[in-house]
What does this fold into?
Amino acid sequence: MIKDLQDKIIKLKKERDICILAHSYMSEEICEIADFTGDSYALSVKAKTAPQSTVIMCGVRFMAETVKMLSPQKRVILSNPDAGCPMAEQFDKEVIEEVKKMYPDYAVVAYVNTTAELKTVADVCVTSSSAVKICKAIPQKNILFIPDINLGTYVKNQVPEKNFKLLSGGCPTHAKIEKSDVLAAKKAHPDALFLVHPECRTEVVELADYVGSTSGIMDFAEKSDRKEFIIGTENAIVQHLQFKCPEKKFYPLSKDLVCHNMKITTLPDVLNCILGTGGEEIVLKEELRVKAVKCIEKMIEYGG
Ligand code: 13P
Ligand code: SF4
It folds into this structure.
């Protein structure tokens, strides 16, 4: 059944000039039919160069919006209209404008997990894999980092030469994890390295052997000589790594590390997008797009 659906999707996407992008948090069966999988930075860059006229984004809304901003001439479809990222909606543009008035000499650095509207008040965007590099590279010394306090704290610690102001937003999925979860996992698997996403709380990140984006964690585990790993991010990464490296062992840090927004996209959703009976075509007002895309273009300029 799964294989039949996959074959149908692969055949139709070629016939209809469709590119399927899948964030690494998607299930294995969706990653298998994608033209490209990766972390949010890699997907943003890929979106710009994909030659197809239609892109189906298997991920969450801000990712599909980013694709549309960078490729306005393409049809961009979010695979499941209900897939949002709660962090992206945590602050309204008006709130950030008020904070900017309080700190006029601070550059607004926005995590890409933000709405298009919020991106219009940002100077530059970052992703988890590019945030340190970009905060070091921008000319401004003062940085107002929005909205993720955990990623912001991690970046602040890596870039001590700059001044940071942080807001108290964050990912509800990663924030569920506590130091005690890490200590318990390390006790259960004493030979395992602990790899973590910087959206986790600071006291969790401090216990890690490696901190990085979803792709960073996967690369690290694949290349490492070590055989056991505790994975401190969405549990799809545990599944993908186990497929890629069957000779190694991967342990979820917690069974609660599940992003329900990333989990709602199914293979039938993808097929419905191709057939025109599902998904949501992303439409952005040109004025909004032109304002919001600037900080994404800056991200790509500084991020390389
Ligand atoms: P990545 O930058 O690792 O893709 O992270 C995106 C995300 O939403 C993690 O929760
Ligand atoms: Fe958003 Fe967190 Fe889900 Fe990533 S894991 S999409 S940050 S809610």
